[in-house]
Design goal:
Radius of gyration: 22 Å
CATH topology: Cytochrome p450
Largest sheet: 5 strands, mixed
Keywords: Endoplasmic reticulum, Heme, Iron, Membrane, Metal-binding, Microsome, Monooxygenase, Oxidoreductase
Number of domains: 1
Number of strands: 9
Structural class: alpha+beta
GO molecular function: arachidonate epoxygenase activity; heme binding; iron ion binding; oxidoreductase activity, acting on paired donors, with incorporation or reduction of molecular oxygen, reduced flavin or flavoprotein as one donor, and incorporation of one atom of oxygen
Catalytic activity: an organic molecule + reduced [NADPH--hemoprotein reductase] + O2 = an alcohol + oxidized [NADPH--hemoprotein reductase] + H2O + H(+)
CATH architecture: Orthogonal Bundle
Strand content: 5-15%
Distance between the termini: 64 Å
InterPro entries: Cyt_P450 (IPR001128), Cyt_P450_CS (IPR017972), Cyt_P450_E_grp-I (IPR002401), Cyt_P450_E_grp-I_CYP2A-like (IPR008067), Cyt_P450_sf (IPR036396), Cytochrome_P450_fam2 (IPR050182)
Number of helices: 16
Order of helices and strands: HEEHEHHHHHHHHHHHHEEEEHHEE
Cofactor: heme
């Protein structure tokens, strides 16, 4: 192996606090852009005493996450989420346990169109409820957050719990409220501070303690569901993810060291529910805001929908290949909003040589996804929203290797397929039925995201929908 074994360069760090005082923790992703200008495509920062190597740009990301997939497949430490989780599920586990739980989740997410109904049918059914709710606004202004969150959440609920919830269901409403509150809290500076100084923050009062209370609520809800499932389980006919997991637990009971425990079931279920709800609904909410700002783009999508699908039937996934413009708009929404700018942290599973540096085993890795989604060679003027980034000169859809909103490599998002289906079906069905009407002049609509250590989100807004 080449290289003298030195770490990638970076700003000088202080003992205990690392680079915390020098970094703009309110907007870490932006600060990382600035550091890359000085240090290039790979550099080291210290968040508290935690050593973090940042990967910046497509080439280094591809070389690490895809070329050295196994070595970069660890999950970096995020003390806040680990404390909320109590036991590792799919997202925060490592090694063999992670591989088994992930493989299990992937297989079952594919299967749980559950024979009776394909996932596509479930999404379509849920979107019909959503369209009905939008109709009932009767052209009055409203905030779309809960409408979208309920609909998206119900799709994952039907896969995980075997059923959708009524939008008025008290338990469902409570869960969604907790989810919303956690989203806001995780975008606050407290989250970043907790991840840098967990031991200290446990002793300090502050809103981060709400996150732990809320996490317990979630666990209680899921445990209750698990117990209900146990009572009515038919091993020959699993209804959903929980059933499948219980059957697997029974099979593995003879194996004393099984990773399939009630703890990992509860945690994996919470993760699927939370991840399957938050990210996709925020992407849709952001997407609608962008379309409100650019009515001419919305108009082109309307025309394509009318030409390919018409008004008399619901959209289906088979339509997507005939709808290059709509497909390009959805890809551009995901590229532009850059939902998780620093990705979830990875970690290296052994000492790794990358370029001329040595990254010691266990080091946390931040793959800066924004540096790929905003690469100006691939996407000219990346700061501008332009569906043309995904269209060739004949207006056919153009794939891009730089499109990595779901990350890349072995830790790519488990729900990617589901999310892409939902984005296409829900947005297309909304635009098939309605014209979006802003409450302010489109020129005054601000689509700059509210950025944080964890994720981007659109500013709050209201709009109206008019039946077409």
């Amino acid at each position: 192996m080449s290289g003298s074994g030195k770490l990638p360069p970076g700003p000088i760090a202080f003992p205990i606090i690392g680079n915390t005082l020098q970094l703009n923790t309110k907007n870490l992703p932006q600060h990382i852009d600035e550091l890359s200008e000085k240090y290039g495509s790979i550099f080291t920062i210290y968040l508290g005493s935690e050593r973090v190597v940042v990967l910046y740009g497509y080439e280094i990301m591809k070389e690490a996450l895809i070329g050295l997939g196994e070595e970069f497949s660890g999950r970096g430490s995020m003390p806040l989420f680990e404390k909320m989780a109590q036991e590792p599920g799919i997202v925060f586990s490592n090694g063999e346990r992670w591989k088994k739980l992930r493989r299990f989740a992937l297989t079952n997410l594919r299967n749980f169109g559950m024979g009776k109904k394909s996932i596509e049918d479930r999404i379509k059914e849920e979107t019909r409820f959503l369209v009905e709710r939008l109709r009932n606004t009767h052209g009055r202004p409203f905030d779309p957050t809960l409408f979208l969150t309920h609909a998206v959440s119900n799709v994952i609920c039907s896969i995980v719990f075997g059923d959708r919830f009524d939008y008025e269901d008290k338990k469902f409403v409570t869960l969604i409220n907790i989810l919303e509150e956690n989203g806001k809290l995780q975008r606050s500076p407290w989250t970043a501070l907790y991840n840098f100084f967990p031991t200290l923050m446990d002793y300090l009062p502050g809103p981060h303690h709400r996150l732990f209370k809320n996490a317990l609520e979630f666990r209680r809800f899921v445990l209750e569901r698990v117990n209900m499932h146990k009572e009515s389980l038919d091993p020959n006919c699993p209804r959903d993810f929980i059933d499948a997991f219980l059957i697997k637990m029974e099979e593995e009971r003879k194996n004393g060291q099984s990773d399939f425990t009630v703890g990992s079931l509860v945690r994996s279920t919470v993760e699927l529910f939370v991840a399957g709800t938050g990210t996709t609904s925020i992407t849709m909410k952001f997407g609608l805001l962008i379309l409100l700002k650019y009515p001419e783009i919305e108009e082109k999508v309307h025309k394509e929908i009318d030409r390919v699908i018409g008004r008399s039937r619901s959209p289906c996934m088979a339509d997507r290949s005939q709808m290059p413009y709509t497909d390009a708009v959805i890809h551009e929404i995901q590229r532009y909003i850059n939902l998780v700018p620093l990705n979830l942290p990875h970690a290296v599973t052994r000492d790794v040589h990358l370029k001329q540096y040595l990254i010691p085993k266990g080091t946390t890795i931040f793959p800066a996804l924004k540096s790929v989604l905003y690469d100006s060679r691939e996407f000219p003027n990346p700061e501008q929203f332009n569906p043309g980034h995904f269209l060739d000169k004949n207006d056919a859809f153009k794939k891009s290797d730089y499109f990595m909103p779901f990350s890349a490599g072995k830790r790519i998002c488990v729900g990617e397929g589901l999310a892409r289906m939902e984005l296409f079906l829900v947005l297309t069905m909304i635009l098939q039925n309605f014209t979006l009407k802003p409450v302010v002049d489109p020129k005054d609509i601000d689509i700059t995201p509210e950025s944080s250590f964890v994720s981007n989100a659109p500013k709050s807004y209201q709009f109206c929908v008019l039946p077409r």
